[in-house]
Amino acid sequence: MGQKGTALVIVLWVVALLSMVSLGFSKSMSLESRSTGNLLAAARDQYHAEAGLNQALLVLLQMRQGQMRQVQAQHQFPWHADGQVRQMQYKDSQLSVSVLDERARIDLNYAPVVLLQSLLVNAGVSEAKSTELAHAIADWRDSDHVAHAQGAEDDAYAASGLDYGAKDAPFQSVAELLLVRGMTTQVYHSVQDSLTVYSGQSMVSSQYASEQVRRAMHSVGLSVSQAAVKSLTATNVVSITSALTQPHAVEQSRNGSSTGTMVTRGGIKAVVRLHGAPQWSYSVLEWQPLAKPCLIIANRFNCNEYES
């Protein structure tokens, strides 16, 4: 092969090598572009969900100040802290927003052991396991070091290989329940929406308690307190959930609530304490981006049953 032939082969190899490098760079840029687009879309969804949450807060404060005309003029329907999902529009996003009085949940720090046990049983946990967990919860929150009959104090945690013991102090969040000896992620997810640490009372006193909470109370001969909350003016601590509704036709009833089963994305859940006159302000107690899509079933958020 002459010099010209050798040069031609070298040129062809160089061109092929450059083509491969160019193709790899092109694919890399395409992936980078998609990744950037996904990040921008996620950030946009999150900010739109925050807009829905802020709108709900504005309505809450207006209602507490007796500004019903403004609320009805903007939304054509009254709001209640009932956990029902209502549809809102923000720019080009359809939002699902709900407000729930925390007194509609069972308080981890004040509920009787028998009620905690009933909640677990109604969530599908065995009778024996429910008793064990309810007693362990009681040992976690009380200040003494004496274990309940089937509970767990420091020695039981040590025997389970855990490097911590019973807290012997009130729960600061529902998520803290995951630290209680014997608690599993599956059991936790099955009851977390029915629990709170903010009601400050042993019974449920809201007419808006979920079906799971009502079943748990009924099973032990309890009923929702007659001091039912009939308006937001008496509500001090609420949880607000705001999420984007997946794009498809959304039906809406006259009071603004959604109908049917839907899937959401890009959501936020916040627990807020509302303050009265003269500030008419609020304090954020918890702020939690929703890590996965949620289902809307029977007009209520259910973030534990969705599987992608």
Q: Key terms for this structure?
A:
38% helix, 7-stranded antiparallel beta sheet, 308 residues, extended, Ribonucleotide Reductase Protein R1, domain 1, 9 strands
Count of spatially separate domains: 2
Radius of gyration: 26 Å
Low-confidence regions: 226-233, 248-259
According to DSSP, the number of beta strands is 9
Shape: extended
Provide the residue-averaged pLDDT: 82
Biggest sheet record: 7 strands, antiparallel
Terminal CA distance reads: 62 Å
N-to-C order of helices and strands? HHEEEHHHHEHEEEEE
**Helicity range:** 25-40%
Brief characterization of the structure:
With 308 residues, the protein is of the alpha+beta class. The chain has helices at 3-64, 68-75, 113-122, 127-141, 154-159, 185-191, 211-219; strands spanning 86-90, 93-101, 106-107, 195-196, 237-245, 262-274, 282-289, 295-297, 300-302. The chain is extended.
